[in-house]
Amino acid sequence: MAMDYFEYLRKDKMPHIWCPGCGHGTIVKSILRAIDKLQWKKDDVVVVSGIGCSSRTPGYLDFNTLHTTHGRALAFATGIKVANPKLHVVVVAGDGDSMAIGGNHFIHTCRRNLDITLVVYNNNIYGMTGGQASPTTFKGSRGTTAPYGAIEDPFDVCEMAKAAGASFVARALDLDAVAMDRVIVAAMENKGFSVVDAWSQCTTYFGRQNKWGSASDMMDRYKEMTYNVKAADKLAPEQKAGKFPLGVLHQVQRTEWCEQYDKLIESLKARD
Ligand SMILES: Cc1ncc(C[n+]2csc(CCOP(=O)(O)OP(=O)(O)O)c2C)c(N)n1
Ligand code: SF4
To answer: 88 alpha carbon to ligand 1 midpoint, in Å?
Structure first.
C-alpha cells in the first residue's frame, strides 16, 4: 500500500514557510519515506533541529520533535540519545547551522559516533536570514555578505564528516529522490553517527543572487557539478576535477558511543 504522508505530518501547521522551488520539502519527503520504509514507530522517533528554513522541518512532523537554538541541534540530540538509546534520533540542519555556528558540535558528534542520523540541507547559503555566505558557499559565488563573490574556500561536508570520524557519510541531490531515499535509509540503518549531505536549492537567495535561474535550472547546475561515486573509476581525472561525488562515500564499523558506555558500566559493576 502506498504510504500516506499525512500520517506523519501536522496538518494544523500547514501551510509551510518554504518558498516555491525550495528543495527543503523534497528532502523532508525522503526522510518520511525512509522512516516509513524502516517501519519506525512514530513514538520512537525524535526529530531535532536548530534554527533556519531547514530547521522548520520538525514543526511540521508528527513525531517527538525539538526545534532548538541555532547550531545546537546535535547537542540536544546527544542528550536525548544518551538518556534513551532506544529512540531513533534524526537531526536536520542547514549548512550554516551545522558547519558554522554548530561546527564544533558537528566534529565532536562525528568523533563520538553516537547512533544519530544527521541530514544537512545544504543550499550553500544562510537562507532564513537573507542569503549570507555560509561555510559551503562555493568560491566565487555571491551572498549578501559576499557581493563580489566568496573569496574563501568552502568546507566539503562529507570530507569534514569523514575526517572527524562519522561512521557513515553520503551525498545526494534533491532532484534524485530515489538516490536520496536510498542514502537516508542506509544512514538510518547504520549503527553510529551518519551524515547525509543533502543538496537543496535556495531559489530565493542563492539562485537570485547568482543568477542561476529557476529551481530546475539550479538542479541542472547541481547535476553538472556532481558525479555518481559508483562511476568514479570510469571517469577521467579531468571529468571529476572540482566536482562532488554522490552516493555512499564512506562507511566503517566503529563502536557506537552508547554501546561503549554500557560496556563501561558493566565492567564497573563487575568490579564491585
Ligand atoms: C545564536 C544565533 N545566531 C544567529 C541566528 C540567526 N539565524 C537564524 S537562521 C540563520 C541561518 C540559517 O541558515 P542555514 O543553517 O544554512 O539554514 P537555511 O535557512 O539555509 O535552511 C541564522 C544565522 C540565530 N537565530 N541564533
Ligand atoms: S529562503 Fe531559500 S532556503 Fe529559505 S525557504 Fe526560501 S528558498 Fe528555501
So the answer is: 25
| Predicted confidence band of residue 272 (pLDDT cuts 50, 70, 90) | confident
Q: For residue 66, report the distance from its CA to the centre of ligand 1, in Å.
A: 16
Residue at 107 is within a domain: yes
Q: How far is the CA of 200 from the centre of ligand 1 (A)?
A: 16
Domain that holds residue 99: 13-271
Question: Which ligand does the CA of 54 lie closest to?
Answer: 1
- Tell whether 8 is covered by a domain: no
What pLDDT was estimated at residue 138? 98
Per the structure, the count of domains in the chain is: 1
Mean pLDDT of all residues in 206-215:
98
Q: Write the DSSP assignment of 118-166 as a string of letters.
A: EEEEE-SSBTTTT-B--TTPPTT--BTTBTT---SPPP-HHHHHHHHT-
* Residue of the CA atom closest to atom 1 of ligand 2: 127
